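Q: what sequence does this backbone want?
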């Protein structure tokens, strides 16, 4: 039954079944499950549950990473099969990246995955992203929100290098920042619209910002 297979995909994310989830996704497609339904009712619901558990302190970062990896693995199988012209309902477009001189990616990747799971269209620029690249991509894709991560005190000022010119050009764009040394106070000082200390919190903030 297609409904059972969607539920199996959801549970595979919740149980971090990285070894078997790709085969499960292939079987679902062979059985005629709509790939969009498999993504939205299976994978996205699964990662939401994992994120909620993390937020409640029931699981820790390694489990959250494994859930995200499991979701990504299945997404790589399902997304190419989504019929042309069919799209997931978008919660908004986000450009995300880790700032220049900073190569930390786990937190940024988790936020990217969790935003995707919650219906955002995410353009991930990767790590060590020069300020000019953030600005260029903002011009190109016209996102609703820019999300930046800095994991070192020495790279935190790079965020302001993006925010100041970006806000001058486009006052409507929302800026979300995060990373171990970043605080809510610092976020306000540099003109960011939102701050989150973890991936599940980042989704909640993002939803409020792009309403």
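A:
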């Amino acid at each position: 039954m297609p409904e059972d297979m969607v539920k199996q995909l959801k549970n595979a994310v919740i149980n971090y079944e990285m070894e078997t989830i790709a085969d499960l996704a292939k079987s679902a497609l062979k059985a005629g499950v709509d790939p969009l339904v498999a993504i939205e009712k299976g994978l996205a619901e699964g990662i939401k549950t994992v994120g909620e558990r993390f937020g409640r302190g029931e699981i820790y970062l390694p489990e959250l990473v494994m859930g995200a990896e499991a979701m990504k693995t299945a997404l790589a199988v399902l997304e190419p099969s989504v019929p042309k012209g069919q799209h997931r309902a978008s919660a908004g477009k986000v450009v995300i990246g880790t700032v220049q001189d900073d190569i930390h990616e786990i937190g940024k990747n988790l936020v990217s995955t969790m935003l995707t799971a919650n219906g955002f269209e995410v353009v991930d620029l990767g790590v060590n992203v020069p300020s000019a690249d953030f600005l260029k991509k903002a011009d190109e894709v016209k996102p609703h929100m820019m999300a930046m991560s800095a994991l070192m005190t020495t790279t935190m000022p790079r965020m302001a290098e993006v925010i100041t010119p970006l806000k001058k050009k486009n006052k409507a764009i929302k800026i979300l920042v995060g990373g171990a040394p970043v605080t809510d106070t610092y976020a306000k000082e540099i003109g960011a619209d939102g701050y989150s200390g973890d991936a599940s919190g980042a989704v909640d903030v993002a939803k409020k910002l792009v309403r």
